[in-house]
Predict the structure.
Amino acid sequence: AKLACCVGVPLCWRKMASPRPFSWLGSALVSGVINLVLNAPIGWALVKPGATMPLWGAPSIALDMLLMAFGLAFGTALVVTPQTRRQISRGQLLPPPLSANLHAMLSRWPRSTFQRAVNLGVLSVLIFVPVPLLALWLFGVEGIDRAAFTTLKGVFSFVEGALVTPIIAVAAMVGQRPPAAAQAPDQLPLT
């Protein structure tokens, strides 16, 4: 049996006898939980007991969201892209079937892992940050206590991780060919 890593989960090892199909849901849930477990304690540590984290300024909720949105997508792309490519080339992971439109869109992503990570970090800031900040501002929030900030940071990282990791993994599969022995007979290659 080979050891293979779960996509998006570098610390989760399990024995595998044959290639496993990619799971959108599994990748999303595992990544979301890992990001929650990593980021919630950071949120707790960032706010002193009895203090509040302001919405604006430095440090602030806004700054933390900007840095977390960029960093989470950037870091995930740096880890998951080469990991997924390696699993495909070793025949440990079977890519999911993709629609022609999704395949065409993902094939236009940069080949360079670093450039892909930077682009995804910027895109994540634009997608994930404005709505929660606008909501907090519209509700008149000027700051939140330690527990609320910890919860916000944990939920934010869960949602972003769960949404970006499967997309990053599938994008890394485009253009990769699993060994012929690992392909399912009814599966089209992602080239």
User: Anything to note?
Assistant: DSSP finds six helices and six strands in the chain. The first strand starts at residue 2 and ends at 6. Strands lie at 2-6, 9-16, 20-21, 52-54, 93-94, 143-145. The mean pLDDT is 87.
